[in-house]
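Obj.: predict assembly geometry.
Materials: sequence records (below).
Method: joint structure prediction, all chains together.
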Amino acid sequence: MRIGIDAMGGDRAPDEQVKGAVAAREVLDEGDKVLLIGDESVIRKCLEDCPGTHEHVEIRHTDQKIEMGESPVEALRAKPTSSIALMAELHRDGQIDACISAGNTGACVAAAQMRLRRLRGVHRPGIAIVTPTFWTPVAVCDVGANVNCRPSHLHQYGVMSSIYLRVMCNIDSPRVGLLSIGQEDAKGNTLVKETRDLLKNDSNIRFIGNVEGRDLFRDVCDVIICDGFVGNVVLKLIEGMAASVLEGMLRELAESMPSQAKAILQASTDLRGKYDYNEYGGAPLLGVAGICIICHGASNHRGIMNAVRVAKDFASYHVNEQITKLLSPDRGTRDE
Amino acid sequence: MRIGIDAMGGDRAPDEQVKGAVAAREVLDEGDKVLLIGDESVIRKCLEDCPGTHEHVEIRHTDQKIEMGESPVEALRAKPTSSIALMAELHRDGQIDACISAGNTGACVAAAQMRLRRLRGVHRPGIAIVTPTFWTPVAVCDVGANVNCRPSHLHQYGVMSSIYLRVMCNIDSPRVGLLSIGQEDAKGNTLVKETRDLLKNDSNIRFIGNVEGRDLFRDVCDVIICDGFVGNVVLKLIEGMAASVLEGMLRELAESMPSQAKAILQASTDLRGKYDYNEYGGAPLLGVAGICIICHGASNHRGIMNAVRVAKDFASYHVNEQITKLLSPDRGTRDE
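Observations (raw structure tokens):
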């Protein structure tokens, strides 16, 4: 398998991207390669700082890159050989089998949709992220690929995320909840109300009904379905709040028991580890005809290495084949 | 001033509602009354358990009440003399000057809209809640009154919340942020993009642009504007997460330093106090022709008492008059 990594995308690029590519050796099989896409001289310099051999690492040069704040579609148009655009093209042409980027998420999604296209029967791709909720990880889909959703999109997110969790996380029959503002059927906006019946009537999903924001932390479901706008707000809220609460706790404790400052810091670090996105290794863009793994912008080398692992598993468990089986219009009966 | 309290609404009703009404004496002026609306015999029994004199408390009997899970509109139709419906009617008829309820939020909103109607020029009322975000309180509007928003609704939430914060919280020129998924203008769903210009072009608001979920915890704005669906998800997420993180921190610390368990528990309690909704005393439903304060379902007597204080301030600072001044169609020029 050949896995592309956007060497230029992310807050800590290219250093952590290159280190991650090197570290990925431990999750690769014999013959597997990672292809770093970006400025060759910069990448080579980073590689020199990495100990060990790097036979599994290749480089594909480009001097264009898309910045984090750029408008995705405009940037892709203005920079046709940016690392993100080039990577999607290489994937389309079969020169790599997967894309990994911690760069501009919107540009990754747009490049994947334009170059790789969608799987047959999929209306809109969605990003499924396993959110670090301290105790029981919950997958949320979509978290930003599709901010103007229709009921059929949400329904398909339920189907695709269920497959993903089943094969990748070994959850036998994932419980799917629809994010709303009350458990009762009547609660929610128009989108949620119109989505309910689609989810209810699909025997391929274990739909448990509406869930609320607080249910992310109560082990009531394994997948939470929402539109990409709400999902993205939720994701950033969790991240901001986790940092804020931990900082607050440390401040309170440091005042009340200064002699224990070291132990408190350690406990806080341990807790932080439980919501460390680097351990989750990136979120798949479900529904595209390829493998596209999107990493947190602040990912370190562990995050990139884990994304390589996710891409490997995604391929070997045939996630896309299973999605097509359920969503493609010529799939035959559902029980086949 | 006469302030109505729904004695039957809330997870801890009627006990905490009655205790709150009694405790409210300390925030009332001479001649002010609170009117407890609900089952008279039950309320009387609760009153007997409250020490002190209760001359400021009156009772208005009804034996109908709306449960938390009921569909608002159906429940209001089926129970025309429920405490919530009756309270709104009493307000409309001038027998009370404000409504307070910790009961079914949807029913409160619907009753207020139907019985009290909207202020002139207001398109949709919205609930503005000052969220306990540990360090710097931020008002979020709307958090559940209006789940299918239009740009003009969000714009008016910006105007009304700014007035509310200015007069009630003494914030001179509140910074208004529009909740989105990135700071750049181009980021967001259709609703957000169409709302931006309305906010930008209104010189009555200090609009700072898009904000993200994490900005709730970073003191970048005083008001966050969003549709009621997103706002409600955010609110419940914060609540669920705060409890979850504190519990997690306690667990980590209890393992690493068991001898300090007591001090840790105290620090956690202190921190919890900083996000205690009871101290904020309920959220106003902005835009109705009256005063309607909505409390957290789990409010205790302090929460109810503080809601009485909010209702008093709302009246004495003439919040509604100021909203009408800016939003009423016959308001003349904006600079008058």
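Conclusions so far: Chain A touches chain B through 64 residues (CB under 8 Å).
To do: check interface contacts against the pulldown list.
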